[in-house]
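Exercise 3.2. Students should predict the tertiary structure of the chain below and write it as structure tokens, then compare their answer with the key that follows.

Predict this chain's 3D structure.
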Amino acid sequence: MFITLKTKIWLTVLSIVLMFTFFTLYYFPAQQKKLLIKNYSDEVQNLANTVALGVRIAITEQNFQGVQTAMEFVKDDPRLKFVSMLENDTTWNNDHTNYKVNSTVFKTFPENQHPKVTIESSDSLIVKRAPFVTSVMSGSVMLAFTTKEIAESQKKIRVTSLVVSGIVLLIGILIGYLLARTISVPVRALRNAANRVGKGDLKQRIEKTGNDEIGELGRAFNKMIDDLLLTRQELDESNISLSQANNSLNTTLNELKAAQAQLIQSEKLASLGELTAGIAHEIQNPLNFVNNFAEVNAELIEELRPECQKPEAERDAQTIDEILTDIKTNAEKINYHGKRADAIVKGMLQHSRTSSGQKEPTDINALADEYLRLSYHGLRAKDKSFNAAMKTDLDQSIGKINIISQDIGRVLLNLFNNAFYAVNEKQKEQRKEVTPFQKVSPLYEPTVSLTTRKLENRVSITVSDNGNGIPVKISDKIFQPFFTTKPTGEGTGLGLSLSYDIIKAHGGEIKVESKEGEGTTFMIQIPL
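Answer key:
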């Protein structure tokens, strides 16, 4: 339940006024009455003791007029109801073994009063007794005063309390009004202004500010609005600057994308060039076989022609059969090597065309082995002096797996090219270290290894070399775009970056392990 500050102020003031009224009208009068009665009773008791003392002295001196004078000691007090002298009589039983004391009224003033011996104090009367003992008689003085004066005093106190309570109520109402006006009204104005500021209106101001805490709050509110306006202006200026910077960044980003697309295309063309060089050398072998066997078949046909021109009876059937068998064998070899050349050409076309993005069953062993040899021959096409050993350990249980063969081929070709480049550079460094009259140390043999394994739910492809390795300080950067360890003009720095993206797109991972001076191993794992 929401209670306004104004209501809380009024409730607080009224609570204080009501508590004060309760104490003024009820508690204080009741306490005052008790105090008045106590004092009044003490006073009556003292008067009774005084009268009893005078009576005792007068009786002792047998001055009976003095008894009257002692009893009239209080006759002028307007509160006197009566004063009586009681005589104590001792009454014995018949055998004088027991007695009781009876009191009888001996004398009373005023004489028209006839009080009972057993009368006690009440709301309208205060009765006190004072005993006396003489050799002549013993008894007590009973003094009674009315409480009319106490009632009148209490009435005056209540009237005074009522007037004071009324005055306090009026003062409380005035204080409540002033508090509500000086606290609730400014706070409500501040709340309304804050609500409008929360909706975006920064033109709000607290106009009336006093010299108290509420005034300080209003001035602090105005300062806050000024600070917000200044901040908004700075934000607007910053937004304009950011918008301009954003436009500039977008333009730069578009230019970078275009440059990246050109670099990627250059990387692909460079890869295609190296592949083409490898294919040219790789395809030369089957073409040589085709040419050689075609020439042999032509010679065999020339040998067969004279035999076929002879009469049937003179023909040598065995010779003809042997020649035909050789021709058939050579034709089969021509067909085999022609298909081999056809497969190489198809692989080149497949590598050069844009990837379709569709996975298809692929013999990963054949794909890896083919690109290993093509990469090797591509490097030899550039450097006739280069030579390296190729070691393969292929797991034949893998079979075909669903991959985008063009993309995985690019990854493998890039890894093989890097491996052959690394061992070639190390071989060149060793050649530079020897004199013209020394031979190159036979201890180093450039070697690139390919290993495939079928694991539980994935295929592992490992490409290793025994080159110079990758320095530790740059091992974390090799998969970053445009980062390359090759000299300027020999690498774009996109090969490993693209390879990383392709493997990730297949749901796999690619890792590298390297030791400086010993070699590098790239490990690819692709889900089955």
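Discussion points: The helical segments are 5-60, 64-71, 148-198, 213-309, 317-352, 364-382, 405-432, 495-505. The longest helix spans residues 213-309.
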